[in-house]
């Protein structure tokens, strides 16, 4: 059993943007890297990065309003995250939580679906 098995990074990506798959993948990557870098000295992040072959990420989908509500809820609960604001559009496109023990943050995101399909515009 891996020591980081229960540590997971949740990434929540806007699923209502009319962007191509590559642009959306970049948004998720930006949010993930920004969260890991911002909180790089946290013990959970250090543990997560020390076992790279067993990193676990979960990518969820949310529309703009859901993402804004989630950001507000995470801020209120002092859950470490990075809200990626794409420039020059100045729009919230993704949120990356720092790696956390799954049971601590799942209650905040369990209502969101796994990202499977993106809406066509």
TrEMBL record:
<dbReference type="InterPro" id="IPR002833">
    <property type="entry name" value="PTH2"/>
</dbReference>
<dbReference type="Pfam" id="PF01981">
    <property type="entry name" value="PTH2"/>
</dbReference>
<dbReference type="GO" id="GO:0004045">
    <property type="term" value="F:peptidyl-tRNA hydrolase activity"/>
</dbReference>
<dbReference type="InterPro" id="IPR042237">
    <property type="entry name" value="PTRHD1"/>
</dbReference>
<protein>
    <recommendedName>
        <fullName>peptidyl-tRNA hydrolase</fullName>
        <ecNumber>3.1.1.29</ecNumber>
    </recommendedName>
</protein>
<dbReference type="InterPro" id="IPR023476">
    <property type="entry name" value="Pep_tRNA_hydro_II_dom_sf"/>
</dbReference>
<keyword id="KW-0378">Hydrolase</keyword>
């Amino acid at each position: 059993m891996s020591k980081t098995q229960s540590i997971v990074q949740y990434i929540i990506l806007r699923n209502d943007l009319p962007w191509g798959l590559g642009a959306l993948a970049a948004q998720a990557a930006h949010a993930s890297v920004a969260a890991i870098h911002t909180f790089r000295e946290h013990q959970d992040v250090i543990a997560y990065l020390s076992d790279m072959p067993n990193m676990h990420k979960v990518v969820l989908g949310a529309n703009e309003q859901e993402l804004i509500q989630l950001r507000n809820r995470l801020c209120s609960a002092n859950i470490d995250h990075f809200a990626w604001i794409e420039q020059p559009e100045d729009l919230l496109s993704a949120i990356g939580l720092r790696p956390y023990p799954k049971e601590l943050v799942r209650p905040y995101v369990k209502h969101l679906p796994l990202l499977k399909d993106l809406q066509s515009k």
